[in-house]
Every structure is written in structure tokens, then in C-alpha cells.
Here is the input.
Amino acid sequence: MRSPVAFTKNHPTPSQGSAGLFAPKYVAALLVLILSVTFYEFRSTVFIGDGLRHLPALRTITEGPPVTFHSKPWLEVYRSHYDRVVVHHHFLFGLTIRAAFALQQALGVGGDAIVAIQAVNAISAAISAGLFFLLVVRLGVPIGISLAVMAGVCLSPAYVLAATNVTEVALALPFFLGTLLVLADREFLGHTAGLAGILVGLATISYLLAGSLVPCIAIAAIVSGSPFRSTIEKLFLFLSAFALVVLGIWVVVLYLSGVHSFADLVTAILKFPEQGTYGRFKLGSLIATPIGLTQAFFQILPDDFRGLRSLYHQTPVVALFAGILSLITCAFLARAIYLLSKGRMLRNLVLLSSLLTFLLVEAVCLWWDPYYLKLQVFALILFWLIVAAGFTNSQSDRAYRWYLLLFVIAVAVSGVRVLSTNIQPSQTNTNAQQLHAIVREGVLITGWSSDVAHLWLYSNGENIIPLPDFALARNLQPSRVESDLKAIIDKASANGTKVYFYALFEANDEELTNAYDIRFRLSGFASYLRSLQQDARPVGRFVQPGEHWSVLYVYNGTVSHP
Here is the structure.
């Protein structure tokens, strides 16, 4: 490992004169307070479905007047909703939000659990911003530029999403950045390895992708130049603390939730319900991944974006602009890495760990979904850290600092637009209210639709059947999925309950086949959906981004008999 003296020589720490009320730690505390209020005040009115999926596991709605919300048992999300809300990816989120909802009710704050989710996310993102500021200052970046870069982080669209919406990722960010800050303060000395292991364990159990930091810290520690035996001992402490936190919390919570046998515990931890459904290498992802990263900084893609090929055919100018801006963003990062290498700073544990983790996160995005901003937020934070250190090190031309500030300003403009959009009336919410007024106690069969996800704001969701969740719950067995769906439709029809289909039949045959026959491996299911469409009639149309429409159908068919 590089000695602290060598690192300080290339990247001096702030002078000790920065004391009193303007010391970095006091500035960071003030920033956390200001940002917590700001993020919450600019909270989004359009929610992403991943967070809304947790609502039926947190509370029960009793329709009024007035509407009341009754909290469910503390571990309900792990007992009855484990696969539906994909607990694997953000294990600690459900328990944390249940605690926040209990506090909300104890304090007499009215409203749904959505209030608790957005409050937790605002506070988590604000704490993360404060830790990021301390981290870049610790790496020798001047305080003024550190503040500017932190503003760039906070105003990046992907970060705004995490801070103001109902995503699960914000909870992991304080632990993620806390790990890097601990390593920056004390390198890999003494008990620092154990503390870093605990923090990254909490980050991982909060959001699985944060665990990509673990192998990267291990690699960086090995190649950083410390004596091999000493490094191995510290890595053992680091990895032991990490494993103890992750497995300890996972096993204890599952055990308290009623999973007692060893085989069931192993299955619950290792089996992912969506295995084989998502994630695959595509040649086009090599182009999509840098564009997805750039989307985390600038809103360059339209709301109705459905892929680069479609974008190029519909609006080639936008596609060309997105490509050029992505090249500029990647060149910006590449130059920062070159400057770090030139200044011999890449052997620093924090910077090398950050670079390796950035590459690993981008590899996951390439495999999973390049445009998934919840994943890209980790890469975004590391990007800012790398360019801040690279463009302000003592061997860099001072002109690079101006380039950095111009980049911050450009990102800030995009972020302000996102914040202004957040507080605008929500068409999606309006659609959900209208859907709820029509469907009521009827059965609603749908795909993964934002409108339908917002229905969880107004109902307990027992009558909503998202087909992807329905298929995953039946282990993607085509005959079982189709027979169980037929049984639900037949039972509802026999009982006089209306059956509705929403946002299913607008897709063409190729899109339906790709979604269900190929991705979900439900052979012949697209044809089955078309047969249901023939027995249904449209009863409503709902506007979507890009002036598209989703149609609500009601089933007119009769009960089928074997």
C-alpha cells in the first residue's frame, strides 16, 4: 500500500487552518440538514413501481371516508411477499421502512407508508451527500470544488431519483460511501478493515449491488503494495466482518419470519425468483451502457424510450445527440483516469477501489439493464469521485478545474429540470385514480405498468395480477401459469365479478412473443393472450408519455369447461 506520506505529496489534504464553524465536518452536517429538507420538499409525485410494490406488505387500506391505513406485522414482507417484492436485491429495505412507518404513525403524521419511504430516502441521500463531501475533501480536493462536485452529485438525475422517489437504493448509499470514507481516513490499518467490512455488509444487505465494492477493495488492497502477510490478515478481518453482517442479518430475520429449516434458509438466500429471466449479454448493450451512464447525468432519452433502434428511427437527431454526449462523458472520465495514473494516484486504496467498482457496476448494467438508473447511481457517485480527484490533483493543469465546473453546471441544469418535474401534477396518478374508480373489486390482469403500480396507493392489491409476477410465482411453468389464470378468470366470471385487462393488448405480436414466450419462457402464451383479447371489449383509454395510449378491456367471455 502507498504510504500516507506519498499520497499526501501527490494529493495534499486540506490545511489545518480550516477549523471552527467552517471545518468540513460542520459544513457536512449543515449540508445534510439542508439537503434532507430540500429532497423531501421536492419529492416526486410520480413513483416507480419497485417501491410501490412494498405497500401491500406494509399496510392495509380501509376505504372511508376517511381512508385509514393500518400497519401490518413487522416481518410481513419476508413472510408473504418475499419473492413478489424481490427481497434478495434490497433485503433490509422492508424492515427499515416498516420501522419508519411505525415512527410516522407514532408521531401522528397522517398518510400512507409512502410518506415514510420518501422521508427515509431524502435523509439517506442527504447523509450520503455529506459523506461524499467529506470523502473528496479527504482526498485533497479544495473545499470550494468539493462543494461544487457534491452539488453535481445531488443534482444528477439518477441521484435525484434515489433521493426524491420511492426507490430502495438510497438506503444503501450512506453505508457505501461510509466504507470509502473509513478507508480514506485510515487506509487499511488496524481495526479499520473490520469497520469497513461492517459498513459494506450493511450496504450490501440494503442493496445487493453495493456488494460489488467488496471484491474491488480486496483486489485494491492486494495490489497496493503492502506486505503480503499483513494484507491477508486485514483482508480476512474485512471479509469476516462483511460475511458476519450479511449472513447474520439475513438468517436472523428469516428465522424470525418463520423459516426454520436449514434447507429452507439456504433456498431463501440463494434462489432468485427471476433467475434466467433477466440479464444476458447483447452486442447492442456495448453501445447502450455508456448511454445509460450518461442518462444518469443528463436526461437525454425521451419518457417513452423503448430502445436505441426505435429512437434512431423515430428521432435520429435525438439519437445522434445522445451518442455524442455519451462520447463526451466517457472521454471526460477517461481523461480523469489518465491524470490519476499520471500522478501515480491509482495505487491509493480508495481511488483504485472506486475505479474497479465503477467498472464492475457498469458490467452488471451491461448484463442486466444499461438504462436502470437505480443501478447506475453507484457508478454515478464513483464517476464524480474519480473526476474530482483526477481534475484537481496537484499535477493537473488548472484548466481542468474549469472543465469540471462546466460539467457540474451542465448536470445541475438537468437536475433542476428533474426537480421541477417532480412537483408537477402526475398524469400517472390520475390514470391510477380513474382505473381504481372503474375496476374497484374486479380482477385486473396486467403487465408491469406504472399506472397499475400506482393503484397500490388506493387499494390493497389483492385483485391486481401482474402477469410477470404471476409467472415467476409459478416457477415459469407454462401449463401451470395458463391453467391458474384460466381458473381465476372462470371463478370471477362465475361469481359475477368483472375481469379487466390493462396495457396488455397494445403490443404487437412480436413484442408479446418476446416478452412472454421468450423472456419468461411461456411457450404459446402470446397466442393465449390474443385469444383473451377476442373475448374482451375496450372500456377506457389512458394517455401515456409520448402521447401513447393504454387501453382497458373488460372480459366478455363465458366460463370455460374442461
